[in-house]
Each structure stands twice: as structure tokens, then as C-alpha cells.
Amino acid sequence: MAQKTSPATLNKNLLILHFTVFIWGFTGILGALITISAAQLVWYRVLIAAVTLFLYFKVNRTDFKVSRKVFLQLLCTGALVGGHWILFFLSIKLSTVSVALVCFSSLTLFTAILEPLINKTRISKLEIIAGILIIIGIFVIFRFETRYTKGIIAGIACAVFASLFSIINSHYVKRYQAPVIAFYELTGAFIWISVFLAITGGYTEAMLLHRADIGYLVLLGTICTSVAYVAGVSVMRELSAFRVALITNLEPVYGIILSFAFFGDMNKMTTGFWIGALIVLSTIFLFPVARKQISKRKTV
Questions:
Q1: CA 10 → CA 13, 19, 111, 166, 237, distances in Å?
Q2: Least enclosed by CB within 10 Å: which of 61, 74, 171, 247?
Q3: What angle is formed at CA 273 by the lines to CA 263 and CA 19, rounded to 5 degrees?
């Protein structure tokens, strides 16, 4: 029989996840500030993150060996991680930080559909309703922000990739330590992006960094990637992929506030954007309330 998670442990993991999501909200700001292309940016990001984790293992004498089969599986999952980040930063560069973050909220719908299919469990009607409401919100944004069409598409595609590797990681974290999973997936992301840049001719003078870019990339690769990614994976021992996805959708709240503070993005948005964003964010906040009420009625 599976051991039930204590309220204290659950609250601790929720607190860690909220802090992690806040850090992720800051990645959009760094992505907008860094001047190189999305793929080149992510190449540097995962390289710095993987090296950081490798040094952590060496300093702490951590055994991070895995079987060849798991090694290859994690490297392949790294392709999804790298693709997700490339699409995320591409969305930012094709639109704004706010648009990219709100579109990323479709993660909830994709997880609500894909997690039961992959795990062969019953699909929750409430989760599907929440996901559909989020898609409606994104559609409203799409309707009024037509100049950002490509950025919106990239943001939604980014959410699909994130949903897939989150569900995969919810299985791995039950068998392996989060830092080990993160190291091999980030290494895999680096390998796949390196191949992508080689095929597309991405190794150009444009990869040369400005002085400010170096500082932003170090911050992005260490705190916002290696530390945050490990924390985000570790909480999946106690939280479902859907619950993680739902809380991750608070990233737009933090990101939009930060983007306003740094860039004044709010002045660029139409009324349609804010109506769509309100639908998305209201769904995120009201979902736990609705689920709690339904659970109470079932126990009565």
C-alpha cells in the first residue's frame, strides 16, 4: 500500500514549487535581455547548467552513475527539454514576455489530456474543463493580438513539450535523485541543440557574447536552470504532473509583473489580451477551490 504524504511534507513541496515558479518567471526577463537567438541562448544555458551540476557532484562526491538504458532515455528526454526552452525564448522574441507566458499556461490542458493517456488512468472531467477554459483565454488573446501570431504558436508548442517531459520526469523521480535526472537531461539538451545548430548553420559570429550577456547567461544557467530545474523535478515525488502544471501556470503572474517592472509590457497589451489573461489566471486560482468543493460533496 502506498504511503500517504503528510500535510507538512505536501506544504513543503508546494512552497518549494511556488518559489521555483517565481524563479522561472524571471527567465523570461533574462531571455528578453540577452541579445543572441533563441537556440544559441539555450545552448549556452544548458551548457552552464550541466557544468554547474557536474561540479556539484564532484564537490559533494555524489555518485551520479546510471545504467546505459536510463542514460539514453534521459538524453532523449533532454531533446524535449531543449525544444521547450528554444520555443519559449523564440515566443518571447516573436512577441512579448507577457504573451509567451500566458500561452505557456496551456500546459495545464495538455497535461490533463496526456498524463492519463500515458499513465493509462481515468481522465478528470474537472481538469479537462480547466484546460479548456485556459485554451479559451488563449484564443481570446490570439483573436486580439494577431501581430503576435507566430509568438503565440511558439508559446503553445512550448507548453506541449513541457507537458511531455514533466509527465516523464514524474516517473523517473520515483527511482532516481532529481539532480541526477536534471544533469543527464540537460546534457542531452546540450547535445541535441549542438546538433541542431550544426545542421542549421547556427555557429556564427552572432554567438559571440556581449559583456552584459555573459552575466545574464550565468544567472540563467545556474540559479534559473540547474537549481530551479532540480527543485522542480524533486517535488514530483509527492505532487502529480497535473498539479505541478497547474501551479507552474502562476509563472505568467510573476513574469507579467516582472516584465512590467523591467519593460513596461503592460502598455503594449490590448484589452483583449487582459480579458484572455484574466480567464487563464482565474481558472488557475479557482481550480483548487472547485476540486475541494467536489471532494466535500463526495464525502457527504
A1: 5, 14, 21, 18, 10
A2: 61
A3: 60
* AA identity, residue 221: G
For the record, the C-alpha cell of 16 comes out as 518549494
C-alpha grid cell, residue 248: 507552474
Q: How far is CA 262 from CA 25, 97, 126, 179, 208, in A?
A: 13, 11, 36, 32, 25
Give the closest residue to 239 by CA, choosing from 83, 2, 16, 14: 14
Residue 134 near residue 126, CB atoms below 8 Å: no
**Phi/psi at 144 (nearest 5 deg)?**
-100, -20
Radius of gyration of the chain (CA): 19
CA dihedral 252, 202, 153, 161 (to 10 degrees): -70
pTM: 0.78
Alpha helices in 120-201 (DSSP H): 125-144, 149-172, 178-200
pLDDT tens, 218-268? 999 999 888 888 888 888 877 777 778 777 767 767 777 777 777 765 556
